[in-house]
Amino acid sequence: xxxxxxxxxxxxxxxxxxxEQADPATDSRAVPIYQTTSYVFHNFDHAEARFxxxxxxxxxxxxxxxxxxxxxxxxxxLEGGTAGLAVASGAAAVEYAVRNITQSGxxxxxxxxxxxxxxxxxxxxxxxxxxxxxxxxxxxxxxxEDAIQGRTPSSSTSRPSATRTLICRTSRQSPKSxxxxxxx
Length: 184
Fold this sequence. Notes:
By secondary structure, this protein is of the alpha/beta class. The protein has helices spanning 10-16, 44-51, 66-79, 90-101, 116-125, 141-147; strands spanning 107-111, 132-136, 154-158, 164-168, 179-183.
């Protein structure tokens, strides 16, 4: 969370993070919804600086979006994070989380009863990239431990609710201190 946001209470953060100043065109307190896919560049140098990431700002609607940026900033502030990333679906969130901690040659241990989309990702999609999964019974925690291999950075379980939790072990951590990634 940004240092300057620590002085505000949760309720204030909900309303103001990401849009600390009112909209300059309308003086609106509400975040404007920009219905655009494209942005104007003042000249070649401006475009080059934007695409070279030397000048922060919008490039193209699929890459950056002002309204989404405010949302990501607010969620990060409310959750105590440094930055946020909003994606269009839970399936996308799970894939981003898994691909962030795995690479070709890695192994995942997952519960047999995980959500169907996540099951298909682990069973059919990731093996094409050299990432394998062993599915075990969620009712027997020992099966998780027994299935861990030398290149197992992650194990996955699903709860009956819509929240999915990945319990991750990476080489940067000791085996006794897993990281938890929650996808909502």
